[in-house]
Amino acid sequence: MKYILSIFLLSISFSQVFSSYDYLGSRATAMSGAITSGNHIESGIFHNPAQLSNNSNITIISGYSNLYGLDFLPLSHVGISKNNYALSFKNISTEFNGNTLSSETALGVAKGFNLYSDRQSLIQMGLRFNFYSYDFGESAGTEGDGSNGISLGSSNASGFDIGFQGVLNKKYYVAYYIKNISSYIEGSSLGLNLPKTMSIGLSYLPYKDLVTSLDINQLSGNKDSEIRFGIEYKLMESFKIRTGLQSNPNRFSAGFEFGNIKLANLYTCNFSYSFLTHHVLPTTHQFSLSVKF
User: Fold this and answer.
1) Exposed, middle or buried: residue 83 (CB in 10 Å: 0-12, 13-18, 19+)?
2) Could you give the 3-state DSSP secondary structure of residue 285?
């Protein structure tokens, strides 16, 4: 009974007017979401699109996790970038006894570009259009587990993200990112707007192998801001370690990336793992694989 109640409560929490999850990707999870600023392709594909501006490769990233270590909350994502364009896909669902109680899919198309550049500085901007689809699954039915219920319908929505970033000497980064600055939800049963979040990010690279990042994240309508801090350190050419902290609520994260493995002299492969604690629920473990051509 306790297990079923947990599924019910978490299903509700992730279905409030299309969910907002800020830790998509192994790097974001390992650094507690402090990825608004900097120069990383994963952050550009799934988070602040301004970081796509100087990308010149083809990169494919995929990842999987069970949120809070719970088998009935699978989260998967795939992203591909070419030059300063990116396409991203995310799916999160609530499952029980092989039945899907709810499912949410997000498809994003993004582009980054430079507004200004000189020998020492850059001003970057990025835009992303998101299309959301939410399936409400089926009713409990006579068996009580959804196996023979009736369809409860679905809904669609769209949102628009915008991000900016200033760079000085490739050491100092200041960024501002708004998710769902403009949005539309089909019908009125789920409200009028998608969750809007605003993030300010600061990153400093004392030297090329060390990245320190600070984020202030604000969910619209919520009076408390989240403070996030993350560190990434390259121990060697093929191995990086990451860690992070967050307040409101207090969370801790860490992870690593093993990569730069050249295959057939055509592409490099990277594997990464990270975890993120929660003040009430179990720890989330994230696995990601990326290939760069």
Assistant:
1) middle
2) strand
Closest to 128 in 3D by CA, of 59, 177, 68: 177
- Domains in the chain (CATH in brackets) are 2-292 (2.40.160.60)
Asked if 45 and 81 count as a contact pair (C-beta separation under 8 A), the reply is: yes
- φ/ψ of 37, rounded to 5, equals -110, 160
The DSSP 8-state label assigned to residue 4 in this structure reads H
pLDDT in single tens digits along all 293 residues of the chain: 444 444 444 443 444 445 678 999 999 999 999 999 999 999 999 999 999 998 888 999 999 999 999 988 899 999 999 999 999 999 998 877 777 778 899 999 999 999 999 999 999 999 999 999 988 777 666 666 666 667 777 788 999 999 999 999 999 999 999 999 988 887 655 556 788 999 999 999 999 899 999 999 998 888 889 999 999 999 998 999 999 999 999 999 999 999 877 776 777 899 999 999 998 999 999 999 999 88
> Is the separation of the CB atoms in 84 and 62 below 8 Å?
no
- The token duo for 255 is 């992870």
pTM: predicted TM-score of the whole model, two decimal places: 0.86
The count of C-alpha atoms lying within 13 angstroms of the C-alpha of 80, restricted to the half-sphere facing its C-beta, is 3
Q: Which residues lie below 8 Å from residue 146, measured CB to CB, with a gap of 6+? A: 96, 97, 99, 100, 101, 137, 138, 139, 140
d(CA 253, CA 264): 34
Place of tokens 């994230």: 286
Q: Which residues sit opposite 31 in a β-bridge?
A: none
